[in-house]
């Protein structure tokens, strides 16, 4: 009822000021809506979710009952708002004064902008980004003397793949699209990019599969210069990583500092940058130039700047207003010209290198400052240098430190060195690696000390190895891995070979012959030998021809064939028969298998004939020269020309000496 009449239902609104119960709402003549309790506004008859206006603890309060309070209808909550204390603004919110946020600000898919400052005034504060607040900027205060600002990334939910990368660069050259630049980075990085920054990127770079350090794409490298950084991100047959441009062939082709491809590729994703510097816990990445840097390359001309010249592999620093270089660690200093105005001091000034010129030579002197004795080290003749011969003249004692072996071979160079033995020995090594003892003549030998015993020939006219040697003579050339019955040649050259013995024939009027053989190429294994006359050898793919001489060793069962020299008659590509030196067939005694056959050269100049009378004991001597080949073996053989009776070799010396 309006105007004080009786209510028709529930409660009413009195426009005159009359009172109708404690819960009534009155609209006073002053334009006020007055209620003794909360005022509920229930639109659409929804008694579960409505608007409440009330005064709580002297604070006028507007809230939603049953649900959160929303201003605007453009959206619903995406953050689980459900409390009567929650407020959603589906449009823009303008605050003309200050806004206070006690528990933080969370922004999803947008940004915060202000024409004034955003300040968080409390200590130990934190700002975070990411779906799970993975990135945090912290300000922490432990005490008045310990304050820290931090940028951290939580790696606990991604196996450590995300690490802090702080990038300072001009925005148009670096964006979220470039996150691939830092793929596989596992340590925090502070990166700084030039204003020109990224100048090219693509997903269609190519490699031809032949030149695996060359990156190709039409007109993509117009602005490239040596020293630019290229990040290979992905592609077929490529290795992702950081690379540096070492050569710009043209606008479509650049060479990188190492191979990045293992085959052809047409889908290489990459990005290239000018001047990208970085600081990490593991390294400091310097600005890179193709040539010496200058003041025009930097913004602030102050000493302390450093840069790397990749064109010449030199490290530069600005000191005393001048750019000066040092060679990078691990490289030998290399200068086109080096001028010294004084002495060169070495090892804490304990050594001095100084020079003194004369009319026809130049002194280069080295001496120890702790020693009054001055050592003149090197003198080079000007005229000799002009003709290609440098002279080193030593006027004081000259010492070489002993060592176990010569150094690496260098073509057209030889080595003088001192071998570590007791006492040590002087050696020379040529450029083929031949070690030559220079204290005495080059020789090697084997010998019989005394009373070797008798040797019985297997067959008449058959060469058999003298196997009675029991001593290895002192030797001054390497004779390799050998037994007491042979000598392995240490170096190719001309040798004198000789043997000298005392022997007794096995009976009267017996004639024996001794000859030196050089053993060459080896075949084998022998498949079989026959028990027949002549003995036939199956040696698959043998290289021998009729009338070749061979030595057989290592045959099982038919052991009488071992350590003997035979003539060969070639039967097939895989077989041959064996004859004595006079052409008689070798008689088989058993079927044999295994072993090897080796082609031999008979050194006919080194031989001896000896006819023994009854009870005769006398010399058995032969000598001569021959060209011998390194790593081949020489052996001394004998045969009984008369029959198969024994011969007794007593003292024997068999040796070789290099003549040239």
Automatic annotation (TrEMBL):
InterPro entries xrefs: ATP_synth_asu-like_sf
Name this polypeptide is given: Ubiquitin-activating enzyme E1 FCCH domain-containing protein
Phylogenetic placement of the source organism: unclassified sequences, metagenomes, ecological metagenomes
